[in-house]
Automatic annotation (TrEMBL):
This is Zn-dependent hydrolase. One of its GO terms (molecular function) is hydrolase activity. It holds the Pfam family Lactamase_B_2. The keyword Hydrolase applies. Residues 113-308 form the Metallo-beta-lactamase domain. The lineage of its organism: Bacteria, Bacillati, Actinomycetota, Actinomycetes, Micrococcales. Keywords: Hydrolase.
């Protein structure tokens, strides 16, 4: 074999070695029985009961053409400005710190809840291939305040990152992992004991460090390999004594948001997915306009856009999501705050005007 072939073979072996572990585990025994008893489970998988999943109308050829020849600027043209200031361990009130993509540190009444932690360079089962970060993580995991709970919305690689889970489990042995049904099988394969995990169906809750965590409906799908929908997906309510936060997870826009608002609202602030949208998959990722509508539906006067800026996962321009959010939010009377990655927001003293920081790198 030529030297180039040997090198390629070695690279393929290196790239493929971590994939089986990163794909996670499969539910068995009592975990599988509990999943099968869920109202969201039918014919061997979880389903969006209120709207049947619609596959993308975009053909593979059209996707490849758009990827290669599309004229959108899908990457920032400069360095994304990061805030690298230390984060207080136990601040009073409610604070949210967007750390990139959908990773957010929520601090409520002194408790620290970490949403969808992804610190890896790529959101992929292999760190040799797959979508690569467009900016560094603004804070190292070890430099975060002590974490009380880790909340996962679903098991896609850009929300459930094996290496981050392992590091968190080692750094904070008392931290609990609060996840939708079935996701605990992945964590258990990665060394997180089952007794550290709370697996919830929609409208089930648990309390960690005084914060009530409720799994609420979303309209999405799941899967880390060829099989799909073997674990549940969810949005989340985080409710303390003095503050309440909503997190959308990944989702299409649907009637469930109004139902969440009626049952659990109002909220002080909503963290809402606004990026990685496309005309071909409106039922699984919201457009920016639908994100604003979702924030209004759950009865949150303020929204923070998430699920944008960090990984290139769709065909729209890099800075387009927040520009569209601002236009729609003004029309609907929803306040929007767009922090820089790493910038902590005090929900009781939010900025009144956007800084438009993304425009300097768009």
């Amino acid at each position: 074999m030529a030297a180039g072939g040997v090198g390629l073979a070695a690279w393929l072996v290196k790239a493929g070695r971590p994939i089986p572990e990163a794909m996670g585990g499969r539910a068995t025994g009592s975990r599988a029985a509990r999943m099968a008893a869920s109202p969201e489970w039918s014919n061997g998988r979880f389903r969006n009961q209120q709207l049947r999943f619609e596959p993308s109308s975009r053909t593979l050829a059209a996707s490849v053409k758009e990827l290669v020849a599309g004229r959108q600027e899908r990457h920032p043209v400069g360095d994304v400005p990061l805030v690298r200031e230390p984060l207080d361990a136990r601040p009073d009130g409610t604070h949210v710190t967007w750390l990139g993509h959908s990773t957010v540190l929520v601090q409520v009444d002194g408790a620290a809840v970490l949403l969808d932690p992804v610190w890896s360079e790529r959101c992929s089962p292999s760190q040799q291939v797959g979508p690569k970060r467009l900016h560094p993580a603004p804070v190292a995991l070890r430099d975060l305040p002590p974490i009380d709970a880790v909340v996962i919305s679903h098991d896609h690689y850009d929300h459930l990152d094996m290496d981050s889970v392992k590091e968190i489990a080692d750094l904070w042995p008392e931290a609990r992992f609060v996840v939708p049904l079935g996701v605990g099988a992945h964590l258990e394969k990665w060394g997180v004991p089952a007794e550290r995990t709370d697996e919830l169906d929609w409208h089930e809750d648990t309390k960690v460090a005084g914060v009530r965590l409720v799994a609420t409906p979303a309209q999405h799908f799941s899967g880390r390999g060829l099989s799909r929908d073997g674990t549940l997906w969810a949005s989340w309510v985080l409710e303390g004594e003095t503050g309440k936060v909503f997190y959308s997870g990944d989702t299409g826009y649907f009637i469930g948001f109004a139902q969440v608002g009626e049952r659990y609202g109002p909220f002080d602030i909503a963290l809402v997915q606004v990026g990685a949208y496309d005309d071909g998959w409106p039922t699984i990722h919201m457009t920016p306009e639908h994100g604003v509508e979702a924030a209004a539906d759950v009865r949150a006067p303020v929204m923070v856009p998430v699920h944008w800026a960090t990984f290139n996962l769709a065909f729209h321009p890099w800075g387009e999501p927040v520009e569209r959010v601002l236009v729609e939010a003004q029309r609907r009377g929803v306040d929007v705050v767009v922090p820089r990655p790493g910038e902590r927001l005090d929900v009781s003293a939010l900025p009144t005007e956007p800084t438009y920081w993304w425009r300097s790198v768009t």
